[in-house]
Amino acid sequence: MRRDYDANVIGSGHNGLTCACYLAKAGLKVLVLEKYHSIGGMTNTEEVTLPGYQSDTHAICIQFANFSPTPDELQLDRYGYELLHPEPCWSHAFPDGRAITVHRDLDRTCQSIARHSQKDAETWRRLYQSFLDQKDAICAAFNNPPPSFAEQGARLSSPIGLDQYRFEMQNLRSWCNETFEAEETKCLAAAWGVHVGVSPDDAGGGSAAWLFSMVIQHFGNNVVKGGMRQLPLALARFLESHGGTIRVNAQVKRILVNNGVAVGVELTDGEQIDCDGPIVSSAHPRHLALDLLGENQVGPDIARKMRRYELGESVMVVYLALDQPARCKAGRDVEQSVYVHPSPPSLDYYSQIFSEARGGLLSAEPFALICNDAAADSSRAPHGKGLMKLVVQPVPFDIKGDAGGQIRSTSWNEVKEPFADRVIEQLTEQYLPDLRDKIVSRVVHSPLDIQQMLPSALAGTNSHGAFLPYQVGPMRPIPEMGDYRSPIANVYLCGSGSHPGPGVTMAPGRNAAQAIYRDLGLNFAETIGKANTP
Ligand SMILES: Cc1cc2nc3c(=O)[nH]c(=O)nc-3n(C[C@H](O)[C@H](O)[C@H](O)COP(=O)(O)OP(=O)(O)OC[C@H]3O[C@@H](n4cnc5c(N)ncnc54)[C@H](O)[C@@H]3O)c2cc1C
Predict the structure, then answer these.
(1) Is the pLDDT of residue 2 over 90?
(2) How close is the Cα of 48 to the center of ligand 1, in Å?
(3) Cα–Cα distance between 244 and 20 in angstroms, integer?
(4) On the chain, which terminus has fewer CB atoms closer than 10 Å, C or N?
(5) What is the pLDDT of residues 203-240, one digit of tens each?
(6) Any alpha helices (H) in 395-434, and if so which ranges?
(7) How far apart are CA 189 and CA 185, in angstroms?
(8) Residue 258 has pLDDT above 70, yes or no
(9) Taking the model in full, what pTM does it have?
(10) From the alpha carbon of 42, which atom of ligand 1 is closest?
(11) In degrees rounded to 5, what are phi and psi of residue 71?
């Protein structure tokens, strides 16, 4: 049998590519296999609406990747990766025309918050200081394998550790009520729960909202020059310059296992590719365990746990090419923000949209994150034109009905256009008065479309598994696979279904590489040229 590769990586999302790059840097001959027709997974940029309009199809903003040592370690700037720093970072717009805007400058953010509450502005400053005090520890937590259960338990022996544990468990509603006095400031933070699929009443939302808010206050809400796709392209250039190969339109059907050791993969067209070393998957962990390996290989206990692994919330995405940038009722700062969270100033609104979606209902008043691609990077659209993306979430994957009482069908293929109409009508009436009239092209991707495009977006979700306290750290995806290792000795996980979870972070890919290096007897710190890296 011919052995062409030392390592196979399944999936060319940014985590799969990151892991592949570190393996190639150690001298392994790496093959990356991708189901889609281009690389990038949820970090891609395509002309979805019209020629010349470059939409970031999924992720647009670099938030937690600002913690990542990968761009420096792999010198990604030499391969075309460059960040832009949009100002303002994000705004929260309210239907009555008021808003809060978070600027790169802390004083300006506090001035904006102070229009709603002076006390909350002072609190924001204090929260930011506490972030600075913890920044290095947070960075280390992201960019290393998760602590063991014993290490996690040890910190509970101190009052500070216990307080931190309480904060990590606290729900958004509790933390917002404890922290802020104005409902507007509470919603400024609470909207971040939507990004990670956490309602105000789910455990664990408070710390996620704090972290998102403070990371952006500190680093900015950055975008990649030329589109998010430049990140996987830079990783791909690094990989290819280190002898690696990437194949697109190559869907892995199963991992071939012989006597408990993976020996290659079989593609959906029947082709078999042999591999002499690690097979690393950035696919959804449920897809890895149940389809690519199968219950025969992982055993009934792991199969049961992966079946109950919670998927999280589904999303629908609306791409809009605009004749001109849309005007915003709340003013120029909001128009220029790369992200706008539009909602009434009410935590109950957020509880409502989650309970509707989880009950199978299309929301009567859906939440749509507004991503302003063209404001963040004018090269994304022809001169003078506008380009926006609306990420509508949470939405049900299996529709049972319509809380708005208008849409009769329960099939996403029939529902997506009328539901997108509702979103656009609502935004036009309450926030962006000329949005409807400026649209020259609109494309809607339902959760079903997204799943068909990327198998990692199981049920149209964006997180490779819900981000809840019982599915994080060494419990992600399940304790038996929480250290990037699977029950098959040379099969690893390296995607967002592993610590530290979803988002553009490069961290699961790099952390998995650290685990693989250890198992292969390679020295990670020496290979990347940093003797002091753990
Ligand atoms: C609409 C949307 C907006 C988002 N916005 C942001 C944002 O602004 N900022 C942010 O930080 N995060 C954002 N995210 C989340 C972020 O994009 C993802 O968490 C992250 O990019 C996932 O990266 P990954 O490499 O782990 O997995 P993925 O990008 O999902 O890559 C996995 C790859 O594996 C491939 N694959 C799966 N199974 C197989 C198989 N059997 N054979 C071959 N290939 C396979 C898939 O096709 C895919 O390309 C967003 C996500 C979505 C959907």
Answers:
(1) no
(2) 17
(3) 8
(4) N
(5) 999 999 999 999 999 999 999 999 999 999 999 999 99
(6) 412-430
(7) 7
(8) yes
(9) 0.97
(10) 29
(11) -55, -40
